Task: structure prediction
Amino acid sequence: MPDPLVSIHLGLPYLAPAQAQKHVTHNEALRRLDAVLQLAVVDSTVTAPPGSPAEGDRYIVPAGATGAWAGEDGAVAAFADGAWELVPPEAGWIAYD
Result:
């Protein structure tokens, strides 16, 4: 059963009617959208997160990845605000490298 607190395809968090600090949830959704729309990646064969990624860098995690990407085969790894966000792809996504 789908999680009623997030959108089905991109996992974007919904705002609750009486939620405090709505900007935090909204910014999280924008960060996720920014990671997957117009998807152009730096590389799809690097198996370990780079030591000094640039803000906004995106990778496709290959099989056998290590470190912060371990167990995330096929995910889009996007570096934002000093951390990796890993987004599992949906069928039909296209990425360019």
User: Anything to note?
Assistant: The first strand starts at residue 58 and ends at 60.
